[in-house]
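Let's practice the habit of predicting before peeking. Look at the sequence and jot down your guess about where helices and strands might fall. Then scroll down.
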Amino acid sequence: MSAPELRRAVFLDRDGVLNRVVMRDGKAASPRAVDELQIEPEAPATLRSLKAAGYLLFVVTNQPDVRRGLMSAEALDALHARLAELLPVDEIAACLHDNADGCACRKPKPGLVLDLAERHRVDLRQSWLIGDQDRDIACGKAAGCKTVLLERDYNSGMGANPDQVVETLSQSLAHILHGP
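Done guessing? Here is the structure:
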């Protein structure tokens, strides 16, 4: 019996990609409760198109507010349950650590992506990571994925050298489904 074929995936950052960021003290931040979750208008149709093309869809997100005591793990679980109800994602993986913890799962380190790829038999060379920050792009590159950066007012720039830069999530489809 032969081993199952490796599959393609799209790894998606959560905040600023799938849902809108929440502005706190003039800075882009993560929603901390279900009532703050606002799905980006293009996300459902874009993810359905990726699913129809055969991609697995994984959310990979840094959520240090739990570690920092700014939200509970239960609130995060409820928020992710709601996200999974609204979007056709296969799994949501969150790093709850803070920078000082030095974990392998906090982006820009690729631990979340590598773990998902191993468990779901993903060919990272045929996969993509979409994010709105340099750390997302660095994570995707470290894992061996192609990358798409969504331009946002709060981007830290393009120091991580993404493969593609687009304004909207739906614009990533042209690159992922049809090549550059």
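How did you do? Helices lie at 43-52, 73-86, 111-120, 134-143, 172-178.
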